[in-house]
Amino acid sequence: MSLLVVGLSHRSAPVSVLERATLNVDAQIKLLQDAVAAEPAAEAALLATCNRIELYADVDKFHAGVAELSTLLAQHSGVGLEELTPYLYVHYEDRAVHHLFSVACGLDSMVVGEGQILGQIKDALATAQELHTAGRLLNDLFQQALRVGKRAHSETGIDRAGQSLVTFGLEQLSSGAAVDVWAKGKRALVIGAGSMSSLAAATLARAGVAEVVVANRTLDRAERLAQILGEGDDTDVLARAVPMDAVPAELTRADIAVSCTGATGLVLTAESVAAAVEGRTGTPAVVRDDVQAAGPAGHLAPTSVGTEDGCPLDLSAVQGATGFSVMGEAAVAGMDAATLEQHAAWVDKGTGTDERRDQRRTPDADAELITALAATVATVGRVPERRRPEPVVEAPRPAPVLALLDLAMPRDIDAAVHRLLGVRLVDIESLAEASADAPMAADVDQVRRIVSQEVAAFSAAQRAAHITPTVVALRTMAADLVASEIARLDGRLPGLDEKQRGEITQTVRRVVDKLLHAPTVRVKQLAAEPGGAGYADALRTLFDLDPETVAAVSRAENNTENAKNRGRA
């Protein structure tokens, strides 16, 4: 059996695809159950967060496993397999181990170094244990990933490079200002009471907001979170809980709103946010027009035409060649359609005689002009450059009166809110864009070395463990032979007393143990090295061990290990 992971994340798929591929709790459970019911997989675990969906499995066939896991992800996510496949990645054996360890350390997170992923890995393991879909391999893998993640955070300064998605989102909302300064005294609304929402509420409380209102579909959970916030020793915040139907009214009062629910539809529409802005300001919310400039809405500011300064080309570089035609310039410079139209307008209204304008409309003239441009390129070394477009003056945008942070996948807040004046929205998509430019800490290299070390150690341990059932079966066979020979001795020498019989039995056992000790220790060492999987087969062949006996030992060890793991969970 071999480890396989098939998944997609913010690194491989656009947010629009991740948003549609999100799995609710019921879908996650069904996916795991179907994965272990499928022929190639013996174990399965699912790591599903706001920016990744990864299915881990222990499979006996690589190609069949990839096909089956990909199909299951498509079926349960509702995104067609043909559409989903270009965004899927596959890791196998050591690469799969390396991937999960990197994820656990925060190296693959949207915000590098964030520690929240450790809790999500722990939850994924607990779910797989509860559903009995995780066996020895995935239990060992996920528990080791948790240890590696903790080691990375304790032995390096990766925490300096990383932060939670909540903190990063709040920093984006504050537009560079210190979050505690920006948030101090504000009123916050937190929609949802899950792990991410709870983290957002606690972060806002520590940042100094005056009030945190928690809204949730299950009011009891909202009340419990509000109570925890209000009783915190490190904060002095007023916290209260409200039902979901109170969100519109609370949004009118709030300065900051954070939403992270499991809803499949929008929690806040553009209309509801516009109504909240109007309730705060007393005037209707205005829709921002990003295309609007100094001229009429929807049009760029007019440029002058008919003069050399208004021409989109650098005429001084053409050495006196005048009267470019649209066709000729397009053939040489490959200009886009909009610039060609602007150039054509300049030519039509520019200086020059009617005769020249008529000449420019003939194919012969075009050919001459292309030749002239080619000569210019040969002399000057470049195609005449276009002038930079005149700057577009954007309409001033007022300071936001409402800051929104959407951490849900699929999104809770309508993306159209981006266009409302007086509102600032930060969502998963904008966070992904912002995090692409985030600086990497020097400690990341050290974490990568830790990951490489731990992958090598884990792989060696797994290879050694693979031969353990064979060694146990060998020693069991030897013990059975000793017992059989002692019983035969009793029949031949019935006069032996207990002391004599015990001495003989102990001597035979010591001889057998000494004969087996060196080979079994050495074969474990050899099996732990790369390519050592064949030693188990060699041992079974040399000692004529029954494969079913070895399999029975392996099943017994797995059952014992699984019972221990369920106890830990």
Shape category: elongated
- Poorly predicted sequence stretches spanning 5 or more consecutive residues: 290-308, 313-337, 351-361, 382-388, 565-569
Question: What portion of residues is helical?
Answer: 40-55%
Cα radius of gyration in angstroms: 35 Å
Largest sheet: 6 strands, parallel
Give me the secondary-structure category: alpha/beta
Overall pLDDT score: 78
What descriptors fit this protein?
alpha/beta, 569 residues, 10% strand, four-stranded antiparallel sheet, 23 helices, single chain
Write up what this structure looks like.
α20 (443-492) runs antiparallel to α21 (498-528) and α20 packs parallel to α22. The chain contains 23 helices and 10 strands. The two termini are 24 Å apart. The model is unreliable at 290-308, 313-337, 351-361, 382-388 and 565-569 (pLDDT under 50). The chain is elongated, with a radius of gyration of 35 Å. The chain has 569 residues and is α/β, with parallel strands linked by helices.
Short description:
The chain has 569 residues and is of the alpha/beta class. It has 23 helices and 10 strands.
List the helices and strands and how they pair.
Blueprint: E1 2-9, H1 15-20, H2 25-37, E2 41-49, E3 52-59, H3 62-77, H4 81-84, E4 89-92, H5 94-104, H6 116-130, H7 136-155, H8 158-161, H9 165-173, H10 179-183, E5 187-191, H11 195-207, E6 211-216, H12 219-230, E7 238-243, H13 247-253, E8 256-259, H14 270-281, H15 326-333, H16 337-349, H17 354-359, H18 363-380, E9 402-406, E10 423-426, H19 428-435, H20 443-492, H21 498-528, H22 534-542, H23 547-568
